[in-house]
Amino acid sequence: MKKKVLILYPFADDPQSVILCEELVKLGLKVIYLPFRSDDENWCEKGLYIDSDTIYYLGNDITDVKTVFIRALAFSVPSNQPAYLSRTEQAVWHAKYLQENIRFSSLFSMLEILRQRGVIIINHPYAYFQHNTKTQFFSRLFYQGCSVPEFISTNDTDIARKFCQKGPCVCKSSYGIGATRAVKSESLAAGCGLDKTPAIFQKQVKGDTIRVHTVGTKVVLSLKILSEGIDSRTNTAGFEVFSLPERLQDEIRRINMKYESYYSAWDAIVGHENECYLLDFNPGPYIGWIGSYFTRYVMSALALFISLHSEGVSVESTSAALTLPELDFHKVEVDHSGLRHDYVDLYKRGLRIRL
């Protein structure tokens, strides 16, 4: 009997979900391909059924699935409300949160039951919470001995100004997604909006920003982001294969295991003076922008991990057994063709401080 994998997608033609499905089928697995969005009409008709022996979701028996892959859960089910600049905006997000909460509670129960049965949940809501609440995550990294730039998180302009007077700093959103900007102390004046949008301020490290793709506990692809700006995701020109220092790989492996993140993309920076820091953690990341070749490369590694683990092999042994082919390309141009406009809008508006 073919091993079953459940893919929960945000929309049916999501490129990453489709590619992963194709790669899993090549390896002989049976894929159950279902939506999780609350506006899906089938939710009211079929919904969710759980008892002591069986689990049905949208009319499909998922009792004996071996792996669940969730794609971009955070967009439809925000684990926390973002900062806002007006009561209208706050009301809109609050309504979305309440609307999705019914679906989220049911899905969470289903995932927890599967997890207790030994099913691997790739992109579990626990991991998304770490991604969406960056202040506490940076603190966790720091207290667990990981390499992070000196930082503070505040909505107090006086405190932020004093921190920025120490030297060059950058400012980024303290939740979800948002652009990183250079900031000077004189820019932090009263009325800039910081009081309504708490932000993270970090010591600026000059160097190369690296996108680190992981599967299981293994770093499968590290790419230097070719960009001249402070924010590596703005006006990105392309990507180049990069050899990540072993120390950072060890830190990433350790944190991924702690938060059961079996597929992720980290942002790291390797400074011009060889200093190395972790910058961000992205469970279930959007990877289409790295081009079709690299995207397929990472998805095939993930499919192989799922296939091996479905045979009862441990995460550590499965990761060690991942044999990846030699790369045919070492440098590609950025691909924006599959990037959704709502993501671009969220990203541009993520940090809403007038600097």
> Which percent band covers the strand fraction?
15-25%
- Please tell me the overall pLDDT: 81
Name of the CATH first level of the largest domain = Alpha Beta
In whole angstroms, the N-to-C terminal distance is 59 Å
> Biggest β-sheet: count, sense, barrel?
6 strands, antiparallel
| Global geometry | globular
CATH superfamily of the largest domain: ATP-grasp fold, B domain
CATH architecture of the largest domain: 2-Layer Sandwich
Query: So how many helices?
Result: 11
What does this 3D model show about the protein?
The protein is of the alpha+beta class and about 350 residues long. α1 (about 15-25) crosses α9. The protein is built from eleven helices and 17 strands. The protein folds into three domains: about 5-130, no CATH class; about 135-205, ATP-grasp fold, A domain (Dna Ligase, domain 1), CATH 3.30.1490.20; about 205-340, ATP-grasp fold, B domain (D-amino Acid Aminotransferase, Chain A, domain 1, 2-Layer Sandwich).
Short description:
With 355 residues, the protein is α+β, with helices and mostly antiparallel strands. Helices cover 35% and strands 25% of the residues.
